Amino acid sequence: MENHFPEKAPKILKEKPFWWKEEVVYQIYPKSFYDSNNDGIGDINGITQKLPYLQELGITMLWICPIFTSPMVDNGYDISDYKGIQPEFGSMGDFDELLSEAKKSGIKIILDLVVNHTSDKHVWFQSALNDSKSNYRNYYIFKEGNNENPPNNWRSIFGGSVWEKVPNEENMYYFHTFDKKQPDLNWENPVLRQEIYDMVNWWLEKGISGFRIDSITFIKKDQDYTDVIPDGADGLASVKHKGRNRPGIKDFLSELNRETFQKYECVSVGEAPGVTYEEYDQYIGNNGYFNMIFDFHYADIDVESGSEWFRRTNWQIKELKNQIFKSQEAIQKNGWGANFLENHDQPRSITKYIKDEKYQNEIGAKALGTLFFFLRGTPFIYQGQELGMKNFKRGTIADFNDVSSIDNYQRSMLEGYTSQEALEFVNQRSRDNSRTPFQWNSSETAGFSESTVPWLKLVGDHTTVNARVQLEKEDSVLCYYKKMIQLRNKSKYRETLIYGEFVPMNTTDHIIAYERIGRETIQVIINLSNQASLIEGLSGEILLNNYSEITYEKNGLTLQPYQALVLRKEENNG
Q: Fewer CB near the terminus (10 Å): N or C of the chain?
């Protein structure tokens, strides 16, 4: 047993206020949120109809995944028209109505900005592909092959070569970081960059509040395009070695910021894989490229260096704690972060982080929610997270929709794993886990559609895990999230919980605890294990508790398995 308090009292930061620091963001994957026209696919009008739910939850900003015109090879991240709306989601008129109604509800909207690549059906690429002399050829990356082989041995994120042969042209290839139907844009071309900036400004003029910028660290590639030492049985090497966060990217990102975001009262949230903590000042500092970024260091703790899904790790709670603390301290030193447990690319957190299946329930979901929600930064809640939705285990690879899942399955077997082992890797990590339809009620279609079978199979626990049941149940995960949002944004502790300094607390390995220090000191303590633990010296006003009771001891508190507490520290405590 130890003294569980910081070794020295920190100085209170004079944090500069910005509106985007005070938001509570809800991420919507539109295809799976709510189907308003009963065709089995979620849509824009479905989001509009559910604004009262989001308002009651306490959400102040929506991040909506791509709704742009797309062949949907990668569920909208392959865009064929940046200024068009995918018909299955609705029309531009539907989006304008959503924007207007959300504003009336006090809810802002940000969209996904996908500018590393387009769809191969985009008019730019079609022109470039069909005419080698087209001005659009330089909008993309075309290279001659190497003795009838691809130009180099780089592997795409989704598996296989980054190069695809151009039909009807001898020895010519085009480059794709992701799927072959997602050709990369050539950011070395200033004309292309201006097209992108004009499009970004067009959307900002429409009245959206900003963007989440997708996979932005892939826009700069080493221009020598030379081979890399193979890192897999396929003889290829990951594109990440020479095509992610490479020297020279700062010029592109500085220009993007200057020509778009800086001109508006908007927020920019970067998805910036591969960025080191030493580079955070460039990305989110006072003159950074973005207002905040997502940090994937702890999100990818279950796979080696955020790599292929078969490279599993046997991570421990202590490692998760260290990663979270390191992330928080690095971001606090340089700027502002976007905190998350789940998103459309990650598995469900309750399955991923709660190691004891017995506690993959309301208790575990609340514990994880408490852990992430009060960290310093803007909280992002992914749809269904507030219900405690879980992963959905599938029995065959044919049951998966996600292109990345299929590629990881094939790659696993290429590396020598059995089909059953490969299936297990994919079940644990598939992006389909977070993309199952939202569970509104206990009906056959979970209230997602009136009667039509949803586009992706339901998890199957919607008779008990759904919004209608939880809204009526005071101790539900959903109502707990409402309490967390209320505490952070509308209580007398608001200033401390938003702007207060983050300070780690010294605890045993399986306890994750930290303080937020401002006008008062708020302590957040989570027992992320299945064993009860005595915490010495804790006392104060309990602000939030995921159990119905607290076990007081003479010299502190005993935390039950996966118990989470938020308390206001007494002045003489520690």
A: N
